[in-house]
Amino acid sequence: MRFEDVLDEVGGFGRFQFLVLSILCLPRFLLALQFLLHNFISAVPDHRCAPRPSETGPGLHTKSLLQVHGSGSPGLCWVYGPDNSTVSCPHGWVYNQTDFSSTTATEWDLVCEDRKLNQVLATYFFLGVTVGAVVFGQLSDKFGRRSMLLVALVLSTVMSAASAFSTSYVMFAVSRALCGVALSGLSIIGVVLGIEWTDVRHRTFTGTVMSLSWSLGNMCLGLMAFLIRDWRLLTLAVTVPCALAIVCWWWLPESARWLLVNGRTKEARTFLVQCAIMNKRNEQTSKLDLEVLAKVSICEEVQKTHSYLDLVKTPQLRKITLCSGLSWFAVAFLYYGISLKISGLGVSIYLTQFIYGAIEAPAKIASFFVLDWIGRRNGQACFLIITGALVGVNTALPLDLMAARTCVSVIAKGFSEAAFTTAFLYSAELYPTTLRYHNLGSESQKIQRRGSEEQRRGSDGAQEKVRWSRGSAEEDVEGRVRGCRGDGQKEQRMQRRGSEDAEERVRGAEDAEERSRGCRGDEQRMQRRGSEDAEERVRGAEDTEERVQLN
């Protein structure tokens, strides 16, 4: 028996699963708030050199340096000194506060020559996410999904609050990087835990519902940024859902599959019984004995230690890892290339952020039906190709066609999100349980590297054609299924042999009883014959006596 069979018996998609998904949607919601927060807290508003305090004395006068630096506006970064030399704004900068009252750029004057320090803040964050994918990948497989989810929630709450109260650039960069480490764990644990508690038939629906919370977070981020123009207050505002998620964590169950994989059958039975009761399958609780769950654990072919090297251990896994990596590269390149470019579309950046989040919802719902119709591999390829084509079209459109460029960008954003949703779902389904977290962790590293590169370059993205190796994946999965079925067939053969032996013993007992009855019959016949012989002898003696008397 496999774990999927046990999950079907206790209810693979019922009230218990809705509870799990509801709790996991909250961490997914706050991920969007944090991952795209850089668009607003590190925005660079219009600025110019601050005027000199006094009009008297040998001051500096502002002048355009368009010919010197190739771009800019009068007094943007430099002024001319008395000897006609260029000097960086000696009195600092003044900023346009129409859109932002303060950002990290205005807090530490990260403009002009220091502009790269402001842009690299996103790189620090995504580097932290990359490290978190490795760290939480190992820790989650060792200590469990639920416990590591709590660690990620607490760490993200503390580090996000610390970044809001940062007193220096270095403190802010370090706290954002550590926050990225924690958020990486939230990202992967939520997907894996949701899939492991859902039956195979409803995993597509589960992935779609969870990803909708990301879209809701995108829309809320645009609204929150519009209402809160100060970067410190905005950072604190997006931290509040982390504290709420910690409270909801107490009702979240551990993955029963992970418990069985690690031989903790008693704890797995506890959560499976809870699942059966909540799904109104009370009659199934009696079947969840420890012996059955122990057989399920054996069928999962568990090994206690795994590493990223196991992703390339067999030819099938090497093909899956390579193709999955190429796909994730394309997904991240396109998605973050579009998501981190919210300016220059002719509308407010807050409205752009809201529209980008709103278009994701119908895209996810459409992908739910498309994936069941054409499959994961074909759906992923179509989403990527269409997104890349739309990005190319948008690049070719003239800059004065703002309406057309905006429409194309919004449609491309929808297809890129559909590809992102499919990538998470497909990657989680391709790998065995003990390697699933390692795979998502390695692919997340590719996402974060591409995200940081997109932020630095400000690119709209590019198209990466992907070829999926579906055949090898199916062979690997079918091999595991055949292995489990083989164990089941062996067990059936042993049961048949046992029943045959029992029948043989029964037949032997019947034969012995038959022989016993035969012996008793022979004894009775012998007794009857003996009594007849005795009667015959008595009659013979009586006849002899009568003849003697007559004589």
TrEMBL record:
Boundaries of every Major facilitator superfamily (MFS) profile domain copy:
20-551
Q: What is the lineage of its organism?
A: Eukaryota, Metazoa, Chordata, Craniata, Vertebrata
Q: Sorted alphabetically, which keywords does the UniProt record give?
A: Membrane, Transmembrane, Transmembrane helix
Q: Give the record's GO CC terms.
A: membrane
**Extent of Basic and acidic residues compositional bias:** 450-467, 478-551
Give the subcellular location. Membrane
Query: Which PROSITE patterns does this one have?
Result: MFS (PS50850)
TM region(s), chain numbering: 12-37, 117-136, 148-167, 173-195, 207-228, 234-252, 381-399
Q: Where is this region: Disordered?
A: 442-551
Identify its membrane topology class: Multi-pass membrane protein
Q: Provide the protein name.
A: Major facilitator superfamily (MFS) profile domain-containing protein
Q: Which Pfam families match?
A: Sugar_tr
Q: Name one GO molecular function term.
A: transmembrane transporter activity
Q: Which organism is it from?
A: Periophthalmus magnuspinnatus
